[in-house]
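note to self: dont lose this again. the chain is below, predicted strucutre after it. 112 aa total, dont forget to put it in the shared folder this time
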Amino acid sequence: MSPVKLAVCIVHNRDKGRVTDELIKAGFKFTVIGSTGGFLREGNTTILIGVEETEIQLLQKLLAQNCKSREQLVNVMPFEAAPPGAFIPSPVKVPVGGAVMFLLNVEQFHRF
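---
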């Protein structure tokens, strides 16, 4: 057995269905945890996957093919408080989505 890693994958909720379907088709076993992003405070999904080193490239490929970055319009409020009605926020495009994957070394891995 090759060394095992823990992949912590954070994907946008819009991509969750596609990603988990493809992970199942590829034979990965995983745990899904609901999470929230920091900047926009939108829903994310954190997926925990025990992977052997030989499977890392396949996992990266699945994430890249099924997690797309997209632009979203958000209203940006000024840092200084102004009287109500003094500032009309204009929408700004920000990138959302995509995926982030952390690979952690695993000392031991047991499946029961």
